[in-house]
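Anyone have tokens for PEP-utilising enzyme mobile domain-containing protein? Sequence:
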Amino acid sequence: MSKLSRLQQLESLGWPVPAFTSVAYADFLAGERPEGLRFPVAVRSSYLTEDGEENSQAGQYLSRLNVGESELESAITDVFNSYPTQEGTQVLVQEMVDPDFSGVLFAFREGSWKLEYTEGLGEALMSGQQSGQTLLLPRFGAWDVRWSAIFNFWKGAETCGKPLRRAFIQLSYITGQLLEQPDARHGLDIEFAVSKGKLWLLQARPITTPEEAEEVLTSANHKEILPPEPSRLMTDLITDAGPALFGYYRDLDPSLLQRAFLRAAGGMPWINLSALLDTMVHWGLPTQLVCRSVGAEDFYQVGLRPWRCLAKLPVFFKVLGQQRQAKQRIQAWQRKAAVETDLGKAEREPFWLIDPAKAFSHWCDSFSSLYVELVTNMQILTGAMSGPVGLLERLGLLHRLAAAIQQKSASTDYLHAFREWERGQRSTTQFLEAFGHRGFYESDLGQPRFREYSEADWEALRKGVDFTASSKPPPRRKRQPLWAWLFRPVIDLIHTREWIRHETMTLFWEYREELNGKLPFAPWSFTQAELSAFFENEWRADEMAERQPPKPVGWDMDTFLCNQLGRRLPVTVLSNVSASQQNHQQGIGVYPGKVRGQVWRVASADLRTVAPPPFPVIILVADALDPGWVPFFSKVDGVASYVGGLLSHASIMLREAQVPSITQIPAQLDFQTGDWVEMDAQKGTIRRVEEG
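Reply: yep, here.
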């Protein structure tokens, strides 16, 4: 479809397009000139193969702006002369808009919508000669356009001013309608102008580079549960499960587009934050709901839109139906998963000898299925808990409830058992019977478990423990207050979530043990394809051992834009994000308490870093935490992390163990081991102080 045809389509659909006409080359030679337009005009190319589905040829042919009546003939001649051949061609003539703002929207079918705009004419912006402002545009609907006249529900564009913000909301709605047309397979590149608050569409061309589609990826809770360099096999397994994981949302609402919940970039598995926030916008829910729970930057900042929620009531009824039976359903699933794991292992056993490639493929499929079900059930539980937990936190009752309930979660039992082992109150054998399947970064199959540790490893775990110091006695149990019984269902859901993690880690251990036993080398630094090649006798064991796997980039950025080619840009390139980050001055208190002491800065939990520094009062500061940090928690007086949430596994453990702790501390606070700090976990603040 040519540029002219696209404008005719926009006009026929009733969208705001400046008046335009066209002139054919043969008619122009015969003396015909465009009439009925107000000057100045823009004379634009509309070559036969321009703006096609496969090749846009954007910028290859001449266009002239601000053309007066006396210049029209020469401008048209110049544009025709820029074509490789003139026969059968046309030139587009369009009234100029005097814009307050101009820009371009890259709206991909599968990916985020990136909007770039600048004041005045946008030709320098379109040609790449000037950098404008950049936003990611949420997908808004018709009712959002209507209500935007009354309510400011999009804080992410607050600095734009109301007229421009409303124009962007209208642009989003129109774009969604245009993408329902079948002729823009990968998406549309839309040039627009805003004049006195009115939106004008100048042109729209098909996107011909789908590999440029960007998603916003975040480490979020992956930074908590996976090591700084996750094993390649684990990364491969879980990113392959990305579309199936997003299937949870599509089962609730089939109108959602297919997206991947996880994506690989730089050899690391990242959570697709843009897909989750687009889902929140689609359902009318605040995007902050997701960002606060995973500790990620809210690049949309879209608030609650009740009119959209009403339209999605069937979805919410499905969610409520899931959550009402969440505990019983998930307990039944866990029992079923344990049986299926045992049956699958027995079914694979003969094939490891006669067809190991088939056995390995079955192993991968079985683990992926387990992982998808685990994450889906975790999402159901988190959704059921997040509302009540948020309310309790605002009322200042969350930590009191955790302390008042006498029964603790499986994660807190794990912490208490480790403390008992450290102090000689529980033998290694007793600890292994209950928690041998746990370990550092236990969500990664490639990480060793406690039952694989050597004697030297166990000695390293005990290093730094002061056996002469009397341990803090556990808090004396009091009668449970009556008000705590009102919120007992919330605690039951929290405990179910920690229980399912504990039990599923047993199944993870079984998968790890099985694959380790079938290979003469450690399989975790290889991908599924590489291991399949070995099982199919394409590579020998000595060749596998000599292979040097590429080094992953690590969790080097918390949140970033990434296209299909792997190009990564920090999310701070977005205008609204760079402004909002400057306002982030404090974290979220997990369990209250004031602690003044010295920082123990730890980047990664392992046997090399587990020995604490010789400080009288220690405050652990880490990028992110999970229950695998238990050997660290037992040695400190306070804990602070940059990434996390109120419902993260580590937060639940620290709250129930009554350890003063903070999560989501500001990224600009850079602490090093030995720094003197004071943390106030009630307020969520941590600051440097004078020594001593």
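The mean pLDDT is 88.
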